[in-house]
Amino acid sequence: MNRASRPRRGLSAVVTSLILLVATVIIAFVVANYASNVTKTGSTTEEVRLSKEKLWLNLSGAVVAFKIQNIGGADLTVDGVIVRNVELDWEDIYYYRVPSGTTFTDELSIVSEATLSGTNFTVDGHTFQRASRTIPLISSGSMLFYVRNPGNLFIDDLGETVSFGVFTKNGHYLTAAKVESATQQ
Predict the structure, then answer these.
(1) Quick one: three-class SS letters along the chain?
(2) How confident is the model over 7-49, as pLDDT tens digits?
(3) Confidence (pTM)
């Protein structure tokens, strides 16, 4: 029997095409999944939580206080503080870095705007430093802030809800609180 008369054995054209198509789709899926995992490996998200929000006001001035927690997987920098969408000067911002491994659950104490002067001040045993530029905050770290006399709070704002927060390289984080009287009587 010569070659020409032998019956041909093999896959039909339709089956061969289907096999090639399935193989191509599987390879494309594997490559896309690998590329996706490679790009996600080094990236972590930034997530900030603001809490313990307070705004105190009297005739002599105003004070804003809050706690910031970095609950994301990456270190970040606090690039500024805003009240009513107005960025404040660094010389009016004081911060206390909560030591790693400890938590701060107390309420922030009321202080007068006059207390916030010089390079630092102490309240409830915590020494707050005046900020001079961007402040780094490690992942899972916390800081407390006191802000002196934001220029856009007035005595007529007592009882009103005012927005404030921080901004970082990657986002703005806002909260709001009702303006309370700083008068002790």
Answers:
(1) CCHHHCCCCCCCHHHHHHHHHHHHHHHHHHHHHHHHHHHHHCCCCCCEEEEEEEEEEECCEEEEEEEEEECCCCCEEECEEEECCEECCHHHEEEEEECCCCCCCCCCCCCCHHHCCCCEEEECCEEEEECCCCEEECCCCEEEEEEECCCCCCHHHCCCEEEEEEECCCCEEEEEEEEEECCCC
(2) 667 767 888 888 888 889 899 888 888 877 766 555 567 889 9
(3) 0.73
Could you tell me which CATH number the domain at 48-181 has?
Answer: 2.60.40.1890
Calpha distance 130→23 (Å, rounded): 63
Angle, vertex CA 82, rays to CA 99 and CA 91, nearest 5? 65
For residue 3, the model assigns a pLDDT of: 59
163 falls in which pLDDT band (50, 70, 90)? very high
pLDDT, tens digit, for every residue of 40-97? 555 567 889 999 999 999 888 899 999 999 988 888 999 999 999 889 999 999 999 9
Residues for the chain: how many in total? 185
Domain boundaries, the chain: 11-41, 48-181
Q: Which residue has the tokens 């896959």?
A: 11
Q: What is the CA radius of gyration of the chain?
A: 30
Ramachandran area for residue 169 (φ above 0: left; ψ -120 to 50: alpha; else beta): alpha
